[in-house]
TrEMBL record:
This is TIR domain-containing protein. It comes from Mytilus coruscus (Sea mussel). GO terms for biological process: signal transduction. Gene3D superfamilies: Toll/interleukin-1 receptor homology (TIR) domain (3.40.50.10140). The keyword Transferase does not apply. Residues 119-230 form the TIR domain. The keyword ATP-binding does not apply. The chain crosses the membrane at residues 71-93. Its main location: membrane. One of its GO terms (cellular component) is plasma membrane. PANTHER family: PROTEIN TOLL-RELATED, TOLL-LIKE RECEPTOR. Pfam families: TIR.
Length: 230
């Protein structure tokens, strides 16, 4: 149907800019076989001058000299950006473990700060008998002075006049870890057995991160059975 009747296109009144974006349109107007209302339509240059498309077509090399450089500039920018992204990805890949460890360190320090805000003590000590002398003279100085941990021990940090059981429960709740020193006197100590029950409760409620057991002068068979459940 188009071959019999042809195609007509009316552009009169449709002004457009004579710039690089419309360069193909200017060429098409001149070379197309479509019947146009005019072979010459007006277009406006970037400086505001209005010319006809025929003049623009005949002056392509002068009016649109910058178009090729713009194309090459776009191509060069795209190529450079691609090269930069690939180089960056290669660097990140080669340093992936270092980056991962750095991120892990930052996260770990953040978690440690959160933990220290949550817990008042790092370690609660549960013991009975003469082992308290070794705890005070040897263990506490090392853990507090050298490792920077905050310890809680019954014979030093409990205030007089407080309910002993309530204080033990409160201090265990505010401690991140608990260390049990299992000695022959442990099984007969009501305080130690209460602390053991409390540790089991805190473990279930996930308040305690770790429970550490240290034995001294005692057989495995004499260790309280309750330790099997924590």
């Amino acid at each position: 149907m188009q071959e019999r009747q042809g195609m007509s296109l009316f552009l009169d009144g449709n002004a457009f800019m004579c710039n690089c974006d419309n360069l193909d349109l200017i060429r098409w107007i001149k070379t197309t076989k479509v019947d146009l209302d005019s072979q010459s339509n007006n277009c406006q240059l970037s400086n505001g001058t209005v010319i006809d498309t025929l003049t623009a077509y005949n002056s392509l090399s002068n009016l649109f000299a910058d178009c090729k450089s713009t194309v090459w500039l776009t191509f060069a920018s795209t190529l450079l950006s691609t090269f930069f992204i690939i180089s960056l990805l290669l660097v990140l890949y080669s340093k992936r473990w270092k980056i991962a460890f750095s991120i892990y360190g930052v996260v770990q320090r953040f978690i440690e700060k959160k933990v220290r805000k949550r817990y008042k003590y790092d370690v609660y000590m549960s013991y009975a008998g003469d082992i308290v002398i070794w705890i005070k003279d040897v263990l506490i100085p090392r853990l507090e002075a050298e490792w920077g941990l905050t310890m809680c021990i019954r014979d030093r940090d409990f205030l007089g006049g407080e309910s002993l059981l309530d204080t033990e429960a409160e201090r265990i709740e505010k401690s991140r870890y608990i260390i049990f020193f299992i000695t022959p006197e442990f099984k007969s100590s009501k305080d130690c057995l209460f602390e053991l029950d409390r540790a089991k409760y805190e473990r279930v409620t996930r308040n305690l991160d770790k429970i550490i057991v240290i034995t001294k002068d005692i057989r495995i068979t004499d260790i309280p059975l309750e330790f099997s459940y924590i």
